[in-house]
Structure formats: structure tokens, C-alpha cells
Amino acid sequence: MAKKVAVVLAGCGVFDGSEIHEASAVLVHLSREGAQAEVYAPNITQMHVVDHVKGQPTQEQRNVLVESARIARGNIKDLAKLDVKGLDALIIPGGFGVAKNLSTWATQGKNCSISKEVENVLRAFHAAQKPIGLCCISPVLAAKLFPGCELTVGHDTECEQWPYAKTAETMKELGCRHVNKHVTEIHVDSRNKLVTTSAFMCNAPIHEVHDGIGKMVREVVRLA
Length: 224
Fold this sequence. Notes:
Layout: E1 4-8, H1 20-32, E2 36-41, E3 50-51, E4 56-57, H2 64-71, E5 77-78, E6 89-92, H3 96-100, H4 105-108, H5 116-127, E7 132-135, H6 139-145, E8 150-151, H7 166-173, E9 177-178, E10 187-189, E11 194-197, H8 206-223
Parallel strand pairs: 1-2, 1-6, 2-5, 6-7, 7-11, 8-9
Antiparallel strand pairs: 3-4, 10-11
Protein name: GAL3B protein
Organism: Ptilonorhynchus violaceus (Satin bowerbird)
């Protein structure tokens, strides 16, 4: 039987939704591992819409589920309908949508709140001891919900290669253990069944991001 893995998206586009290359890499590697992806997104309005040419917010409004459906080629379900009992694992790609639409991390950092639907899903998989894969910025969700867990978002010292390294320091303030890893590496928290990799938290060639996500996906499927 193929493993069924829920993939939760946060819109379409790095600055206001799911990072498209990360989401695509997750789906490609799940297919390669013989797993069946079931894509979900919350049926909510995005925090805002960003013009990805100018890098500036616009006055437009978009829906997270509708936008995520672009990546899922229309094969997507409302997150409210997710039933953990029929699924073997959960993966959440990164992108600013995680910090803007699935949570308020972008504006409130460690004092953020997480969307109730997203929190319920994460807690359900965690309680069922089913593996959770997180990449890029999405490990902050676990840092907020599961104190004492082990995670990586790459490195904790800011430099040109690691421009978002302060995220690791903020996660430590929430009580989690951050483990420095290169973009092609993963960290596995065996106790909490969390598998994390840094993806585009690193200024790295896209194939290295793809390779790191592949290792994360393979480990999630193995643990499922």
C-alpha cells in the first residue's frame, strides 16, 4: 500500500504563499518514493498579496485555497476536511505564506499565533506519532507548538549565505534545540518524529535545495 502524505500549502508564491520550487520538490520526491500526496490548504484570505516583480504589497485580495490550487493542478482539498486517521504523514513546504497565512510569525515572531486549523492538524499528527516534514520557515510552527523539540532552519549565524539565521535564535527562545545543518542535510528529531531541512533559508543553488528536500521526504516516508 502506498503511503498517503498530506501536503499543506499556504498560497502560491514565495513572498505571500508557498515557495513554489519547494512545494514542487516535495511532490516530485513523494512521487519518486511511491507515496501518494494529498494536497490541502486553508480556505482563508491571504494576509496580503505581493507583486513578485516589484517585491511590494498590492491592494489585491486572494484566497489561500484558490491560490494553492495552482500548484496542486486543481487537485486540492480544504484543510478543514483533513482526517489524520486516513493519512500516514504530513509535510509543510516553506515560503512566506507559512509566516503570513498559516501563522502570524512574519509580524509577531515568537509571540505569533498559529491558524487554529493548522495547529489542530499539526497536533493531531504529533499525537498519533506520525512523521511531520518541515522545510525552510515552516519549522517555526513546530517550535511554537512543541517546546523542547529539535529542528533545523540551517545555520544560526547570519551571513551572506544564511540571511535569515536570526530565525534559529528566535526558535531557541521558544525552548527548542536548533541544530546547524547545510542546505543538503536534514535533522531528524526521533522522539517527536520531526524531519526538517533549511531549503531557501540558504542562498544556495536550486539543485542543492531540491536535494535537501529529497532527503527530508525520503525520511518522512521511511518513518511513516
